[in-house]
Amino acid sequence: QELKLADFQPPTHFIVDTTYTPFGEAISAATGGETTVKVFMGGELGAGPAEQYNRVVDGVADIAFGLPGYTASNFPLTLISELPGVITAEGGTQAMMDNVDMLSDEYRRVQLVGLWNNAPNLILTAEKPVRSMDDLAGMNIRVPSRNAGIVVQAWGANPVSMPAPEIYNAMQTGVIDGAMIDPTTLKSFKLAEVTNFVTQGMDTTISEFFLIMNRDVFADLDDTAQQAVLDAGREAALTAGSTWLKIADGAMADFAAAEGKEVTTLSEDEVAKFNEASAAAVEQIVADAEAEGIPAKAWIDALAAD
Amino acid sequence: MTTSNIPAWPDLFGRATFALAALAGVLLILMMGLIASAVFMRYVMGNPLLGVNEIVQLAAVAITMLALPYATHLHAHVRADIFDPALGRVGRWLADILTRALSIWALWILVGRAWDKAAEAAEFGDATNMLNLPIWPLYALVVLGIGLAIVIFAVQIVLLILTRRAFGEPENG
Amino acid sequence: MADLTIGILGFVALFALMILRTPVAFAMLLTGFFGIWWLDGLRRAGAVLMTETYSAVANYSLIVVPMFILLGNVASAAGFSRGLYDAAYAWVGRLRGGLASASVIGCAAFSAVSGSSIATAVTIGKVALPEMKRLGYGPGLSTGAIAAGGTLGFLIPPSTGFVIYAILTEESIGRLFMAGILPGLLMMALFMLAIWIVTLRDPAAGPRGERVAFRERFALLLKALPLIVVIVVSIGGIYLGVFTPVEASGVGAALTILLAFATRSIDLKSFATSVMETVTTSTMLYMIVIGANVLNPFLSLTGVPGGLEAGLNALGLGTYGTLAVILLSYVVLGMFLDGLAMLVITIPIYFPVIQALGFDPIWFGVIAVIVIEMGMITPPVGLNVFVVRNVAGDVALGTVFRGVFPFLIAMIVCLFLIILFPQIALLIPNSMFN
Ligand code: NA
Ligand code: NA
């Protein structure tokens, strides 16, 4: 059986060679060629990144790459991991995959195959450097999620929501002053062209990616094939997680080396100010989640214990 | 006798679908107002409105689905008419029936899926990211809009059979 | 059956449905849906149909389509577009073929607020065609100028064509809009040159208009002011960073409505009519987008895009040879297909090839929009020609197609200039964004 994997990123994306090719080969090898994976990049099975979850639920694709943050209402517990200080960039993927059973309630409409984290979201600004929390006051900052919006607000900025492909224009023309986003976008969305300043050092949100599979298609596989998918998925998550960090490091190094670009690593005092503000916001978000019956504290403790 | 053999009852559907399309028009104007105020709030007041894009997305679905039956009733969908003469009178008539029958078939399956989707989205509380707006009403509007488009197509097939001529042809042509 | 064969059968079915009077949107939707059903079962086919019906429409960027259509409809109902034409006439009507040139300028100016070629041709055609008839213009020249001038609606921002292209290729709408400005002005100038040449050979086709006193010229310019304000605010606002293209469309429409009511140029009834026309047209366009979004996964599943891509590469024609084949295919498809439909069918196939050849994606967007515009006025299916003939009333279709011919040559010249000098398209976006 051929499993169709849908991804909205361009066909040239590094995930194809580093992650999908070994993923497919591992499944094929473990099932003696009975089950294979065919990758459809660039939104060939349907444009619109936000719909990836629905594509798997409905069965447009058998497996899909996506961000839990795009349909945040479905993944409140997963998204607790994106809050500042909950996971580390380096250990996050391992910790989440080790405790993946705790998430099963959230993924009952699909089969979770792999879950990993991006590099931390930094503050990218066009004209005005952010060297202290005071600098951020009143700036219009694009945020990737509702949680990130709450954090940015706690830092004193105005959160603005807009689709990622629009950031370039909005920053260039001054519609927004900056964006809270991971540094790989300096390359992939060409944000380096419109960004002059990057601020890092504080605890910040860390976005998650996942590979999910249609529930019925997974159930129809025999035990060997099911195990093969889960094993290969775990491996894919770990590979993808470390690859993303490496790409982010490279993008940051290139940015820092470019003329006229400035990377601010916050001083200890400033980091403390930022973290104090975001910790209060995180506490509130966790308390709200617990109030809705989401075991946020247990999840945070499990991730920290890993 | 010169009385037309076009029955009057299909006009009822025209008026009903017009009412829905008028609702779509009101939504369109409200959305325009929202987009303009968002600019004002950010640029003049320095206080960006969060989640305008989510409202706009949902409103676009609502507008399209509310106006679709009316647009279908008006035959507003673009088509190429260059081969019409080659089809002949009977060919055009059969083509009009076939197109509508095929469309009804596909749209019927769509309505079924949209119905399931609405029920599932309601059960699982699917909502937008920033504003937490429930999504199931939009799937329900897909059921309504596509469902009424099916009705319009069905009415048009009945008309085609009753009048025995393709759409847009003279009565005694 | 091999997947690729099913894909080719899909194209046959698509054309057969269009011949059988199926609207473009439904022809694509039916081909995609039944194609996936055959290929991969009802579960996946139904899933694609459901997901795309929702997600193709729930698209923030696409909202510029209804917004700009609303802007154009209200401007037309309020008589603002007539003011624009009158002003253009006052300034150039005295020249040989001046009325035709005024029509082209009116089209270009109206294009700056209308995203649609057809809307532009109809709006300016309604005011300009009777005038040209009154002054004894040849029916070929007058209808040709309007049909061709209308295509500027797609090239000069805002443009439905650029929006669809941006959505299909994930390029920036703002950049594409800015890239369309200079080619649009160049095309307008070439159209006027074509008119000059036509009237040089046949002065009777475009007699001179009456002279308008200078004072009157400025007075008429003042009357065109409302629409000029809207144009300056919408395009200037994007350029100065006050708002995004999506916001520009909303602000532009709101401003037009405010001006229309403030100057008492519109009553509630004709405003309501404009809104109803807007939702009807927008729904029709959204259905085309849905249809394309259902068709595309089917083509991907059959491997047709990859096959065509490989085929084009295997021809080994080199960079410009491959570009020539792509452009020629557009001319052929453009004879039969609707512009938007053509864009959504071809771009997913050609875009990877163009990128691999190292062409600038923004530049190719401009090129693609121009060849698609050519399709709007080539026989046998030329939507702009059809609507202009309908507005003109008493002109044979063949006369309009013949009248369009000099303008088609002008478009080809424009195309070659932009291929030779890509800066014509890229100067503004590059200076603005880098
Ligand atoms: Na335009
Ligand atoms: Na044509």
Automatic annotation (TrEMBL), chain B:
Subunit structure, as described in the record: The complex comprises the extracytoplasmic solute receptor protein and the two transmembrane proteins.
Protein name: TRAP transporter small permease protein
Pfam families xrefs: DctQ
UniProt GO MF annotations: transmembrane transporter activity
Principal location class: membrane
The keyword Nucleotidyltransferase appears for this protein: no
Keyword Phosphoprotein: no
Coiled coil: none
GO cellular component: plasma membrane
Topology with respect to the bilayer: Multi-pass membrane protein
Annotated localization: Cell inner membrane
Function noted in UniProt: Part of the tripartite ATP-independent periplasmic (TRAP) transport system.
Domain Tripartite ATP-independent periplasmic transporters DctQ component residues, every copy: 31-161
Segments traversing the membrane: 12-35, 55-72, 93-115, 135-162
InterPro entries to which the protein is assigned, alphabetical: DctQ, TRAP_DctQ
Taxonomic superkingdom: Bacteria
Alphabetized UniProt keyword annotations: Cell inner membrane, Cell membrane, Membrane, Transmembrane, Transmembrane helix, Transport
GO BP of this protein: C4-dicarboxylate transport
Family statement: Belongs to the TRAP transporter small permease family.
Source organism: Maritimibacter alkaliphilus HTCC2654
From TrEMBL, chain C:
Annotated localization: Cell inner membrane
Pfam families in the record: DctM
GO CC, any one term: plasma membrane
Key words, A-Z: Cell inner membrane, Cell membrane, Membrane, Transmembrane, Transmembrane helix, Transport
Start and end residues of each TRAP C4-dicarboxylate transport system permease DctM subunit domain: 11-424
One example GO MF annotation: transmembrane transporter activity
Annotated membrane topology: Multi-pass membrane protein
UniProt family annotation: Belongs to the TRAP transporter large permease family.
Subunit structure: The complex comprises the extracytoplasmic solute receptor protein and the two transmembrane proteins.
Protein name: TRAP transporter large permease protein
